[in-house]
Amino acid sequence: MNIQGLKDTTTLSNGVRMPWLGFGVFKVEEGSEVVDAVRTAIMNGYRSIDTAAIYGNEQGVGQGIREGLEAAGLERDKLFVTSKVWNSDLGYEATLAAYEQSLDKLGLGYLDLYLIHWPVEGKYKEAWRALEMLYKQGRVRAIGVSNFHIHHLEELMKDSTIKPMVNQVEYHPRLTQKELHAFCRAHGIQLEAWSPLMQGQLLEQEELQELAAKYNKSVAQIILRWDLQNGVVTIPKSIREHRIIENSAVFDFELTADEMRRIDSLNQDRRVGPDPDNFDF
């Protein structure tokens, strides 16, 4: 894939453009830590910020966005902002209210992408109805889901009028999710990776270290490049400026087809997060 930089985008099924590489804030503390991280990311070229209600840092993310946009001399429409509705708010009215709360905390007039965070049985369809309404009203530019298996997507699409535009899932070389990825491609759903670095568990992997040495890159950069060449939107997280910059320096080299296959072969169907079929929140 010919992805040249942080401003490069994929086009979602509704025509909205979403940056290939974004900045995630899972477990980044509310307050100065998240404000500084988001501002730093924007000032260093990131144009996509991903948060969620359950992260408890939407207010700081909003402040970081405002400070970052001002420092970079950018308007709001140059940034792609994502948040997610939490499990306790998965009902039609509750989801509509949760969206307003997220906007209020972020200090934004709209979101670029709003996701159902987890496929809680018996609840996610009503939440999706609310997302469809928000989308039809022009309150959000794109809607999608997170942590949905194939059967969740099939069940959702049986009754929906709008297909999810994004499915954000755990995705890394130990969990390549090939069948899910193929299903999403076939239905025009953009796959997006959370925990792309497997929370640091892959940094000592010998095959990845060899590739890092070959390209004079870090193991993290090799993994992020693998994500992008697989056509997966990716949102690495860091609170350190040098790491935020390093994570974005993945556009000046390209892995070969054989190297891509070697990384694919590391798959063990291993998760660091819960299995969407077997979780209790």
From TrEMBL:
<dbReference type="InterPro" id="IPR044500">
    <property type="entry name" value="AKR5G"/>
</dbReference>
<keyword id="KW-0521">NADP</keyword>
<protein>
    <submittedName>
        <fullName>Aldo/keto reductase</fullName>
    </submittedName>
</protein>
<keyword id="KW-0560">Oxidoreductase</keyword>
<dbReference type="InterPro" id="IPR036812">
    <property type="entry name" value="NAD(P)_OxRdtase_dom_sf"/>
</dbReference>
<dbReference type="InterPro" id="IPR023210">
    <property type="entry name" value="NADP_OxRdtase_dom"/>
</dbReference>
<dbReference type="InterPro" id="IPR018170">
    <property type="entry name" value="Aldo/ket_reductase_CS"/>
</dbReference>
<comment type="similarity">
    <text>Belongs to the aldo/keto reductase family.</text>
</comment>
<feature type="domain" description="NADP-dependent oxidoreductase">
    <location>
        <begin position="23"/>
        <end position="267"/>
    </location>
</feature>
<dbReference type="InterPro" id="IPR020471">
    <property type="entry name" value="AKR"/>
</dbReference>
<dbReference type="Pfam" id="PF00248">
    <property type="entry name" value="Aldo_ket_red"/>
</dbReference>
